[in-house]
Amino acid sequence: MSATSVLIERNTAPEPMIRLKGVRKAYRSGGRESIAISNVTMDVAEGDLVSLVGPSGCGKSTLMRILADLHQADEGEVRIGNSASAFVAGRDIGMVFQQALLLKWRTVLQNVMLPAEILGLPRRESEVRARDLLAMVGLAGSEDKYPYELSGGMQQRASIARALVHDPKLILMDEPFGALDALTREKMNLEMLRIWQQSRKTIIFVTHSIQEAVFLGSHCAVLTAGPARMADYFEIDLPFPRTLDVKTTEAFGVYTKRIYRLLGMD
Questions:
Q1: Could you read off the pLDDT of 12-52 as tens digits, one per residue?
Q2: All residues at 6 or more sequence positions from 125 whose CB lies less than 8 Å from its CB, including other chains
Q3: If residue 19 lies in a helix (H) or strand (E), which one and from where to where?
């Protein structure tokens, strides 16, 4: 291959959906500085599912707030979107939290449609999309139920549909399965991969679970505490679609051991 052809390939490579370079954030109180995150550098391609794993206090939530444009970094480069896809923070981000946070006086369908209502999107088209999303997450037939009529896992599936209803480019998920029991969490991991592969959204998924990070992620970012810093960012080269059997493979064990070492737990 000629040097000219190599140059063309490099110039036409797609820009990342997210670029973070040397990002640092500190909080100040009483004249003292507390570092929340430092040296965060990663490129996230459109359609990636990035697991963000680390102990409590390592800055995962701070990084999510920066990505959501709720906080500003003190240093470094933060860029979301690319020349082929303009990005508007209020419109192009969907959020899923540890608790489903469904409004108890609204039906499942009404809860899912809430972002579309806030953004003033056409009601008829939004309702069609909301019903399609509820079917995608396995809640067809539950549109007129209220949150108290759903299990914890079903409520979280409704919250995922709500995060997708306005068709955002980026989904931020802050430990969405942390409050679920172990068996339900395993089922939701499988559901998460199915939904991601159908929607092809770019997702940043925060978790404390090393196994969950490896099982879900196309890539993994590892943050350490004391002081908070990014220790590594790497691709997880396990084939999709994934089943729970992948957790018994040698390759899966290699990735989990790598994260344990980075966190000083080996």
A1: 567 899 999 999 999 888 778 888 899 999 999 999 999 99
A2: none
A3: strand 18-29
pLDDT digits (tens, 9 = 90+) for 147-167: 999 999 999 999 999 999 999
Tokens of 212: 């969950």
Q: How far is CA 56 from CA 5, 112, 205, 206, 265, in A?
A: 47, 30, 15, 11, 15
Place of tokens 């896809």: 85
How many whole angstroms separate alpha carbon 39 and alpha carbon 233? 11
Phi/psi of residue 233, each to 5°? Answer: -145, 120
Cα–Cα distance, 168 to 89 (Å, whole number): 9
Calpha distance 43→52 (Å, rounded): 13
SS3 content of the chain, % helix, strand, coil (to 5): 40, 25, 40
| Cut 0.85: pTM above it | yes
